[in-house]
Amino acid sequence: MADDPSTKEQTAEQIADLTGQLTTLWGQAESLALSMVQPWRLYQLGIVVALFIVSHFAAKWLGPVFYSWVRRQEGWPKWRLRTAVVLHKRLRPIIFITLAWSLVFVMREVTWPSRSYVISLIATIATAWLVVTFVSRLIRNPFLRSVVRWGAWIYVTLYFLDILDPAADTLDGLALELGDFRLSILGLLKALAVVGVLFAIARGVSKTTENRLKNNENVSPSMQVLVIKFTQVVLYGAAFVIGLNAVGFDLTGLAVLSGAIGVGLGFGLQKVVSNLVSGIIILLDKSIKPGDVISLGDTFGWINALGARYVSVVTRNGKEYLIPNEDLITGQVVNWSHSNDYVRLDIFFGTSYSDSPHEVRRLAIEAARGVDRVLSFKPPVCHIVGFGDSSVDYILRFWISDPTGGLTNIRGGVYLALWDAFQENGISIPFPQREVRMLGDGGGLDADTSDISAKVED
């Protein structure tokens, strides 16, 4: 198939435009470099290097002094201490900027302004860098903070060097075109910047909504999680779409590409989607909510958090299990506190046949009532469940209302109360006993033993 002439002409024009932009950018960079080799510019560069060396040694001397002074301050609020720590870490650039601007003001009073141009330019860039460093501290995410900081540093440097427009034109010329869809490096950077800012705003609004919902006692925990997740999806989705539209992205051009990617991801992320849908079902039917005590297989604990992909279950020994939402939908789950927090526990024990069953039942019920966490308005009960080989077998049932406090420990407390009550009232807890009777006379036994010994000796 022959190539389309119009496509060739368009490609040639794009290459020519890009070449022209690169030439312009290189020309400005070359002009800036040549201007720096003039005698007074070289002197100023030497002065800047000297100022940097002086600020380095001054920071080494003032750093420990400033740190010791901060440690001696008592009663300072946290924000002031954090500010002091940030200033201590940035002491070298602060000293450099102070010395540079002081020198610029002095030189402008005693000589021509052009003879302090390089020093003022570097001082301006350094000041902008320092401001960016302080402002970026407001971003808590370390990775996002680094991205924003480096992006802002590059932007202010290009701006004050007066090569921002040529650099932008060059980045805009580096583009990928598929029909009507055009994606340049400049557009991509703008989209990332705008979407990042909108994501930060969406995150702040989401956190505020989450805090207000958690303080609202009229909203159930499962409904809180559902509203929070729905709010996050809406806010982040809106931030993404608005951010792309704000920088001129045509979303219709991405429809085919995103559709193909979506089909591929759909086959590869079936489990992820299944867990996501299962999580939404769990939130809607309210079968499991934060704070519930559940048993799933050998795992027993309480729900710490409901995530988009998993449920966090914390056990009594401090382990945190991340159970996929799909397992909670398809498997059998014991929810100890689904409709209410009341849980009935059973313990088994036995006493001697010589002890009165009526007295044993009375003592067992009184012992259980005296244990903390055992509910008094749901009184314990004790029943005989059988006559064993060595003991009369009983079951003691009692209720608690705080299964998150543990089950084994409350059972152990009731067993100890039973032991103390039985010891005080002379109730014995028997252990299995067996009698071994040997049939036949002694002679027969000795003869058999002799035969066995003879065989062993042979």
Automatic annotation (TrEMBL):
The chain crosses the membrane at residues 42-70, 91-110, 116-135, 147-164, 184-205, 226-248, 254-284. GO terms for molecular function: mechanosensitive monoatomic ion channel activity. GO terms for cellular component: plasma membrane. Pfam families: MS_channel_2nd (PF00924), MS_channel_3rd (PF21082). The keyword Ribosomal protein does not apply. It is found in: Cell membrane. InterPro entries: LSM_dom_sf, MS_channel_C, MscS-like_channel, MscS_beta-dom_sf, MscS_channel_2nd, MscS_channel_C_sf, MscS_channel_TM-2. SUPFAM superfamilies: Mechanosensitive channel protein MscS (YggB), C-terminal domain, Mechanosensitive channel protein MscS (YggB), transmembrane region, Sm-like ribonucleoproteins. Residues 272-338 form the Mechanosensitive ion channel MscS domain. Its main location: membrane. Gene3D superfamilies: 1.10.287.1260, 2.30.30.60, 3.30.70.100. Keywords: Cell membrane, Membrane, Transmembrane, Transmembrane helix. It is a multi-pass membrane protein. Residues 349-429 form the Mechanosensitive ion channel MscS C-terminal domain. Belongs to the MscS (TC 1.A.23) family. This is Mechanosensitive ion channel.
